[in-house]
Amino acid sequence: MNTTEQSEIRPKAVRVPLDRSKQAAEYLRSASGGVMSTLAHFWERLSLTPPLARDDLHLVVVTKKPSAPAGISFTSACGAMLYVPKAHRAEVLASTQETAEALCDYLQTWWDSNPVQKTAAVSAETPIPPLPINYLTGLAAGVTAMTPRLLSMLNRKAPARKTVNIMMTLPPDQPAPLCPKVRLARDGDEPALNRWRKLYNQERGILFDADISAWIDSRKICVYEHNGEIVSIAKFDLALTTTIEIGGVFTFPEYRKQGFGGELVYDMAARIRQMGKTPILQVDAENDPALMLYQKMNWMELGHLARVWLNSAA
User: Fold this and answer.
1) Nearest-5° angle of CA 223, CA 238, CA 145?
2) How far is it, in rounded angstroms, from Cα 6 to Cα 10?
3) How many domains does the chain have?
4) What's the rounded Cα separation, in Å, for the pair 113 and 118?
């Protein structure tokens, strides 16, 4: 087959066995430039899923070189997806419109071939059974490309909610000093932590777990003290083999624009490096002040991670 013929072949999404999950995770990390590393962490463990739940997990690879599913090479892959029908969600890696269409084709074909699933979805309110998917996450380009097609399947014009986060990492040659004003949260910090939880939810729309004592015991919450007051708070999120994510970074409104948040994040990055790992974080693409701060601190952008709720933002 010549190059021209090969380029004209449309990519196809093929379901592969869960025992290929490790290779799929490695592909996800490399092909996404690290943007989907946190998702890859869970993909890697798919083969450990209890047998009764495995039929519900669709590990899908997009390729222009069709072959037996077990023989598909991830070196020829141009996209991937984990689809979980019972949870109505999919995690997608698609960098081109063709790849996004191939994933949508897969979802539509699977739905059309499952009359039991379709019958269960039919009701008087929904005479046309909707595609059983509500939530997409993954590389922003692919999620954005898939959304219109999936919305048309659901007879909707717009998603219920969409967020885009910029994934960032601190390059190894960028210094990150420890700060003597930063410490781990301890007993007595509960009022400040409760205020952090409330205000973060109001501003960013994310509500942290309410068990403050567990936060303190976890030793994953860091606070910045100024004149005896806690002015900025952040936490260590998911810890992976090579990275640890910093999340929940928040400076109380009355103490902003004084550099406290930046010093706190640098300190946490230094602690992560002391563990032999790389610091990463996510920034809401619409949070201009935070994005400008991290850019000024020389954090490097890896890419965009999107989340779309098609039917409901709940």
Assistant:
1) 120
2) 9
3) 2
4) 9
CATH number (domain holding residue 134): 3.40.630
CA distance 279 to 273: 7
Q: Which domain holds residue 226?
A: 182-298
Q: Judge whether 171 lies within some domain.
A: no
Question: Looking at the structure, do residues 144 and 23 belong to the same domain, yes or no?
Answer: yes
Dihedral of the alpha carbons of 99, 100, 102, 104, in degrees to the nearest 10:
170
Q: Residue 170's pLDDT is what? A: 97
Interval 253-282: pLDDT, tens: 999 999 999 999 999 999 999 999 999 999
127-131 contacts at long range (C-beta below 8 A, 24 or more positions apart): 128/155, 130/154, 130/155, 130/311, 131/107
pLDDT at 5 > cutoff 80: no
State pTM to two decimals. 0.87
Q: Is 81 helix (H, G, I), strand (E, B) or coil?
A: strand
Answer yes or no: do 152 and 193 share one domain.
no
Q: How far apart are CA 183 and CA 204, in angstroms?
A: 24
Give 208's pLDDT tier (boundaries 50, 70, 90).
Answer: confident
β-strands 89-94, 135-139 pairing = parallel
Task: Say if residues 79 and 61 touch (Cβ distance below 8 Å).
Answer: yes
84 and 186: one domain? no
Q: Tell me what pLDDT residue 260 has.
A: 97
